[in-house]
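User: Can you recover a sequence for this backbone? Please restate the input before giving your answer.

Assistant: Of course. Working from this structure:
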């Protein structure tokens, strides 16, 4: 690219693309530009304003790069309203406007190592350094994982969070302060009385994306396309209670803070990240500092596959010149800084054969068509099944049994059939139709008027019961170790389990009668069942499979119950019976007192408890001797509950604890307001180490993270540490 072109358009583009555009001639290039601009403008509006993109990110990037090449070849064609000159899109008007003190810029993209090294060469030229491969020890980069979320700006005054906004068009964003306050990782007050502006990204974790889509699918609602759109749409809700129902998270990565002399408090990006963490803001530990361009490339290669195991979605790596004085010398051009670039991982899609489409009956009776595919590896794992959501989705994508299809993972976690490949059809492919009767109990299938949902209305359908009981006994519920699917099927088929309480009425002789069960294995399963008889209230609530209630909502609900019906001085069994008798009378209005529960969830929960069948289920569990252990009581206040002892803290549990199973320990952490993490980093507040603690304990010692034994853990939970 010529220097003049780079000054005109702030996005990197290959010289070959510019040459190809120049070869078109200016008149033809102008016609093509006229075609591209409305497409990209509409795509930008859908992406930034409505969080509902029509075209894949990769296709958008290709079109944008084509436009950049044309405008680089013919700078005279550049206009102020070209998408190449804008950061995002103007605010929609649904929220108040916030003018950013400093523009929130976008980043140029590169898509391979050659383009990244070309960026390094441009940086060297701009700083007057020798070209690669000559060493340049004074030039170092910071590499940070690129979060596929919604950019935000947070303003703190004397340590207090006072305003939050979206990026908008880079100059003016939308005021989403109330919604940002519902995100637990964003502190209401910093650890120091600092006045600063902090930039970052809000995103929806993969697990939350999967939970919401599963709930929407069961309810017969359209599912969300990916975590980015879901998170952005959740943050931009008019009712902040809706945002609170969706457990969003955030990473911060830019600090604007002036010292007493008017200059910045820190001198580099690496120092800024350390400062953000010291102030109590969430900073992604998966980053690297002090890198030359070769080390940056190694970082990219490392995370190309490792990213699939992260709990959030990342679509690339942001590479920044570390020193702020060098950033200032390099400057900014058009919509992007010259000192930073985003390397985007290529979209991972594969082609395979969809051998069949099979409808499955879920817990609520919803029939979900599932694609059975020729097993193929995508995004780090082998995939043979993918939900097709509903019949309307099958028709919209023109999917037929026997089709060759394009497969990917939405959010790098959920297998998704993107589209069929009609050119590869042989004529032997077949259309899929929903069955007229339930494939399990033969009850006539119902489709609600105006809904995409087909469902079996029979509440005693064996498929529904087996799914409900599997959820009840599973790891997220009562966690009955050894009660897997094959065991559960036998218990149901033989009539040994007809209600949830029947799990606790099973004898060793009952279990020994199962196929491939000896006396010892029967005794082991019985021991596991007895161990599960006492579980924290939140786990019992989650096990019930209440509509719209997942793990976190169950924890919130349990805390509210403990404040409403205190357990002090009451035997846990008697308290459980009291709660079981009282819950059927709870109203939706009362449930909206629970922090994090909005009107939609409140109505669903109230409706569940008002159902006479639910009262029977609760009474059956009490009769079977199930005990819900009450959480520590949280005192209600005007704005929710008083601060929990672990509010804002991250705790990692490692090794074996005598008084806690791992899941129960993590449950206790969350109930106390903390975050139960799986790995140790500089952001970890405590590590709880039991017997046979291994590498996590060593990592905590290396980083200086406080380590607690079990007694210290109990004191921490009680607020005594």
């Amino acid at each position: 690219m010529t220097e003049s072109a780079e000054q005109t358009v702030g996005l990197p583009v290959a010289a070959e693309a510019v040459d190809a555009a120049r070869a078109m001639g200016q008149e033809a290039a102008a016609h093509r530009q006229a075609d591209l601009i409305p497409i990209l403008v509409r795509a930008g509006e859908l992406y930034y304003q409505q969080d509902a993109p029509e075209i894949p990110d990769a296709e958008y990037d290709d079109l944008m790069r084509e436009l950049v090449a044309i405008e680089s070849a013919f700078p005279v064609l550049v206009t102020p309203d070209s998408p190449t000159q804008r950061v995002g899109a103007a605010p929609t008007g649904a929220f108040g406007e916030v003018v950013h003190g400093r523009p929130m810029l976008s980043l140029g993209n590169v898509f391979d190592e050659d383009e990244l090294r070309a960026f390094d060469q441009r940086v060297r030229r701009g700083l007057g350094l020798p070209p690669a491969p000559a060493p340049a020890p004074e030039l170092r980069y910071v590499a940070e994982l690129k979060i596929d979320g919604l950019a935000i700006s947070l303003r703190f005054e004397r340590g207090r969070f006072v305003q939050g906004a979206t990026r908008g068009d880079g100059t003016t964003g939308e005021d989403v302060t109330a919604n940002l306050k519902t995100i637990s990782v964003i502190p209401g007050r910093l650890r120091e009385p600092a006045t600063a502006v902090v930039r970052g990204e809000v995103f929806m974790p993969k697990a939350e994306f999967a939970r919401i889509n599963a709930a929407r699918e069961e309810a017969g609602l359209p599912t969300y396309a990916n975590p980015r759109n879901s998170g952005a749409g959740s943050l931009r809700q008019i009712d902040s209670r809706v945002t609170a129902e969706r457990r969003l998270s955030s990473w911060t990565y830019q600090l604007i803070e002036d010292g007493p002399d008017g200059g910045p408090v820190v001198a580099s990006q690496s120092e800024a990240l350390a400062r953000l963490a010291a102030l109590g803001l969430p900073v992604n530990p998966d980053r690297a500092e002090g890198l030359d361009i070769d080390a940056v490339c190694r970082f990219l290669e490392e995370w190309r596959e490792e990213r699939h195991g992260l709990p959030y979605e990342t679509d690339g790596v942001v590479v920044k010149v570390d020193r702020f004085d060098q950033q200032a010398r390099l400057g900014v051009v058009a919509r992007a800084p010259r000192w930073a670039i985003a390397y985007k991982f290529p979209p991972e899609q594969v082609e395979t054969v969809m051998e069949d489409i099979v409808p499955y009956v879920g817990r609520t009776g919803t029939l979900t068509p599932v694609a059975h595919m020729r097993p193929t590896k995508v995004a780090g794992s082998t995939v043979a099944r993918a939900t097709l959501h509903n019949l309307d989705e099958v028709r919209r994508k023109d999917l037929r049994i026997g089709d060759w299809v394009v497969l990917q993972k939405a959010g790098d976690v959920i297998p998704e059939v993107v589209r069929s490949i009609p050119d590869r059809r042989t004529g032997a492919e077949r259309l899929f139709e929903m069955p007229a009767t339930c494939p399990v109990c033969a009850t006539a299938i119902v489709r609600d008027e105006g809904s995409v949902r087909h469902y079996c209305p029979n509440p005693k359908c064996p498929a529904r019961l087996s799914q409900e009981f599997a959820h009840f006994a599973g790891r997220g519920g009562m966690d009955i170790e050894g009660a897997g699917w094959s065991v559960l099927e036998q218990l149901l088929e033989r009539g040994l389990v007809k209600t949830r309480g029947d799990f606790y009425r099973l004898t060793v002789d009952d279990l020994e009668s199962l196929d491939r069960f000896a006396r010892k294995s029967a005794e082991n399963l019985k021991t596991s069942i007895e161990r599960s008889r006492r579980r924290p209230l939140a786990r019992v609530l989650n096990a019930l499979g209440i509509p719209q209630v997942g793990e976190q909502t169950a924890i919130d609900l349990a805390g509210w119950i403990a404040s409403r019906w205190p357990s002090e001085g009451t035997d846990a069994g008697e308290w459980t019976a009291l709660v079981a008798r009282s819950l059927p009378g709870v109203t939706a209005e009362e449930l909206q007192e629970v922090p994090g529960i909005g009107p939609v969830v409140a109505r669903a929960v109230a409706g569940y408890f008002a159902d006479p069948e639910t009262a029977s289920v609760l009474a059956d569990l009490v009769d079977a001797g199930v005990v819900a252990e009450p959480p520590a009581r949280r005192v209600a206040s005007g704005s929710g509950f008083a601060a929990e002892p672990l509010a804002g803290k991250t705790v990692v549990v490692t090794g074996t604890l005598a008084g806690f199973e791992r899941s129960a320990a993590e449950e206790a952490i969350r109930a106390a307001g903390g975050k139960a993490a799986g790995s140790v980093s500089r952001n970890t507040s405590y590590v709880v180490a039991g017997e046979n603690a291994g590498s996590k304990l060593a990592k905590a010692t290396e980083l200086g993270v406080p380590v607690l034994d079990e007694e210290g853990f109990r004191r921490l939970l009680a607020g005594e540490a």
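That completes the design. Residues 26-48 form the longest helix (23 residues).
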